[in-house]
Amino acid sequence: MSNILNIGKSALNAAQIGIATTGHNIANASTPGYTRQVIVQAASQAQNFGYGFVGQGTDITGINRVYNDTLAKQLLNTTSTSSASTAYYNSINEINGLLSDSNAGLSPVMTKFFSAVSAAAANPTDVATRQTVLSSANSLLNRFSAVNSRLDDIRQSLNTQVSASVNTINSYATQISQLNLVIDKAMSTTGNPPNDLMDQRDLLMSKLSEQVKTTVVKQSNGNYDVFIGNGMPLVVGDDTYPLYAQSSYTDPGRLEIAYGDKSTPKIIDSATLAGGTLGGILTFRNETLDTVQNQIGQLAITLASQFNDMQQKGYDLNGTAGVAMFNIPQPQTISSANNVDKSKMASATFVPGQSQQITSSDYTLKYTGGQYNIIRNSDKTVTSAATLPVTVDGIEFNVNTSTPVEGDEYMIRPTQGAASKITLAFDDVEKLALAERVDANGNVIAFKGAGDNTNGLRLAQLQDAASVRLLGSNANRSYAQAFALMVSAVGTKTNEMMVTSKADASALEGATSAMQSESGVNIDEEAANLLRYQQAYQAAGKMMQIASQLFDVLLQLGQ
């Protein structure tokens, strides 16, 4: 009789645990990251009574998560990819709007400036038209400055995002390591997986993959070892290896990602941190923002330099040799923070008359192997020399020391930010040099009078001259063509990223749906389970009631 009672008791216990587990599922149906749980039952060891084995009821061997490793990995990957493309698209879309705006862009003010020059050339003695040239020039510089300032704002915003993303990644890594410790302890103590804690850890992994692409290696004790980039460990057991947002060695205003020893972390190549929001904004900065800002600066410097050169080939209204109209900043040079002797500085200057050779690239000047190497960063073209100065791409490179040290490195930025630094050199309308002083053969000639407009016509013709050097092209372009090509490239990339981000979002939605279909809570299914466990509970109770009644019968017979 006790056998029947025990069987009933085990059935009652199983049904009770089933109801509790189902209720837990229902209660957490909307909990982020929650994975449906099921009880695992097994028949108790049967007992041999000679005539055969009689069952002894049921045992609950565990409560498991309905979890698919393959789907989970797919979800992490698509989350990382979608976050990266979305971050890139949101950032480049802002630049695309800035450049393509017909009212706020550069094309209208460049056209207006050269129209004013043409009008002045048509009436060289008229003071009013000369004043319009200076006013238009000032408006052009203001627009260049405004566009560059907006790009600077975007750059600073990226620094803020990089710092925030690094902090978020480190926070998630710490929480995952702590959960590793608790989960390991729970499993080693009880032998059973703490499902809710594992759900919390998986949710943190999903959030981490939104920030950076991750690889998870599961250990036998249930721990997650988490790797990022090209295999850099972020979490190993309950240990973490944090990232750092650190100023670039050659650009203090640019935050890079550092990794390694806390006291001396090393900056890593941002290209290794693909995926996630962090990877997306770093790729955008490297591929688009740097390129566009450099091209804007190149356009401004080329235009101002060539206008200055032509100005100096003319006579002004009073027959005086023309002077430069624009003040042009020289290339920015920065010594690497790793250089031993901080007093050693590089210098870079634009070579007069070579403005058509200026590119939109940054340069690295490095002393290695007993020689100076000037590296054009855009395509890694190297120009080597035993001594300096050396002229490359219209720029003369030099250093202020005759005793270089192996590894000395300098960053040279000829054009980035230059669009905000060009100013008018004079505000006297009479200094506009519209009369010819140097003829087509380079000969200096006498002043022909204030009515001479030969040089003014040449100034106006600069608008259509092939003046701007484009990297990767064998032919130079006019200012308008160069700007249009830049706008077109940004627009094309923006459209590409829009399509990509939508496709990635769709893939993420599919992966999420597949994961939810496998592991999510289905309320209808759980309601059916409740009824099933309720019936099992009632049946087990009925069994125990019958066993009790039979036992009473035996007692009565004994009396």
From TrEMBL:
Key words, A-Z: Bacterial flagellum, Cell projection, Cilium, Flagellum, Secreted
Residues in Flagellar basal-body/hook protein C-terminal domain copies: 515-557
Stretches assigned to the Flagellar basal body rod protein N-terminal domain: 5-35
Flagellar hook-associated protein FlgK helical domain location: 93-326
Flagellar hook-associated protein 1 D2-like domain location: 336-414
Superkingdom in the source lineage: Bacteria
Pfam family name, one: Flg_bbr_C
Main subcellular localisation: other
Subcellular localization, as worded in the UniProt entry: Bacterial flagellum; Secreted
Listed InterPro entries: Flag_bb_rod_N, Flg_bb/hook_C_dom, FlgK, FlgK_D2-like, FlgK_helical
Database matches in PANTHER family: FLAGELLAR HOOK-ASSOCIATED PROTEIN 1
Entry's family note: Belongs to the flagella basal body rod proteins family.
Protein known as: Flagellar hook-associated protein 1
Species in which this protein is naturally found: Methylophilus flavus
